[in-house]
Specification:
Elements (H helix, E strand, L loop, with lengths): L1 H10 L2 H5 L9 H21 L2 H7 L5 H13 L5 H7 L22 H8 L13 H11 L2
Helix pairs in contact: 4-5, 5-7
């Protein structure tokens, strides 16, 4: 199980799963095929991970692991998303933008990343925030 989780985190970092098939490849046909294959691999790996394991990873010492695990919970439409988000409202550790996180430049801190994954207009999760909840949390996080 640990190997699967590590493979998920390193092979499918948030920018791959969040892109939903978008690719920077020069050929549109190749980009579509590569994006589709990546999505299928990511989804099949997500099915093998349990909510409990992912919730445990959201408590990791590594901010990138916490964000990847949270993103996986959102993509799986887990009912654990809201409690994990509330638990990490004060998690303002800066994300280290290294080789895995090089494309995730919009989010400076863990709690900002998690908030945006539950955005009322862009999140596909059933557990996304309402606009009022989002604005309240945004004020608390970005103050």
């Amino acid at each position: 199980m640990r190997i699967r989780i590590l493979l998920f985190i390193f092979l499918f970092p948030p920018f791959i799963l969040a892109s939903q098939g978008q690719s920077t490849s020069s050929s549109p046909q190749t980009a579509t095929n590569e994006g589709s294959k990546t999505q299928q691999k990511g989804k099949s790996l997500l099915k093998k991970l349990s909510d409990k394991a992912l919730v445990g990873l959201t408590d990791s010492d590594n901010a990138g692991v916490r964000c990847s695990a949270f993103l996986a919970l959102v993509k799986m439409d887990s009912n654990k998303v809201r409690p994990v988000f509330v638990k990490h409202m004060d998690d303002d550790e800066k994300l280290t933008l290294n080789f895995l996180w090089g494309l995730v430049t919009d989010y400076e801190r863990v709690n900002q990343f998690m908030l945006e994954q539950l955005h009322p207009d862009t999140s596909e999760s059933s557990y996304k925030l309402t606009k009022q909840e989002y604005e309240t949390c945004k004020k608390l996080i970005y103050q």
